[in-house]
Amino acid sequence: MSLHPDMLQQLLQASLGARQHSHSPYSGYAVGAAILDEQGRIHVGANIENAAYPQGLCAEATALGAMVMAGGRRAQAVLVIGPGPEIITPCGACRQKLREFAGQELVIIAGDPSGIRQQWTLGELLPFSFGPEHLSHKP
């Protein structure tokens, strides 16, 4: 799926705005995410850290929650933005969470405050993934 440059810009601006709401007092590493759903709507999320580290939430997870709560069921693209200069991608757990709401063709875009840096498909970042269709073959 190729995204129109205007949509890429909208996703970038939405993720930058979401990043401003990050709760990252422990790492200081603020992340924002913006997900484009099947209806063309953008849903945002930011990382939310917790003093009990494993209980924190990634930006992609909070954006997926916002999408589901708004009635979205299929992610078309996700843009993740960190502070830079290193390119960030969704962590392994978030790749699997995204897979629940998208196929291998999901567009994943990495950015930083300077703009869009790189993009992949979910299939490139999570090859041979396990998804909902695997459960349709119950014994």
Keywords:
five-stranded mixed beta sheet, Cytidine Deaminase, domain 2, globular, 28% helix, single chain, alpha+beta
Question: Care to describe what's here?
Answer:
This protein has 4 helices and 5 strands; from the N terminus they run H-E-E-H-E-H-E-E-H. It has a single domain, classed as Cytidine Deaminase, domain 2 (3-Layer(aba) Sandwich), CATH 3.40.140. Strands 2-1-3-4-5 form a 5-stranded mixed beta sheet. With 139 residues, it is α+β, with helices and mostly antiparallel strands. It has helices at 5-19, 59-69, 92-100, 122-125, and strands at 32-37, 42-46, 75-81, 107-112, 115-121.
* Head-to-tail CA distance between termini: 35 Å
What Rg is obtained from the alpha carbons, in whole angstroms? 14 Å
Characterize the largest beta sheet: strand count, sense, and whether it forms a barrel.
Answer: 5 strands, mixed
Helix content: 25-40%
How many strands in all? 5
Provide the spatial order of strands within the biggest beta sheet: 2-1-3-4-5
Which architecture does the CATH hierarchy give at level 2?
A: 3-Layer(aba) Sandwich
Bin the strand percentage. 15-25%
| Helix/strand/pairing category | alpha+beta
CATH topology, anyone?
Answer: Cytidine Deaminase, domain 2
The whole-number mean of residue pLDDT values reads 95
| Low confidence ranges | none
The CATH class label is Alpha Beta
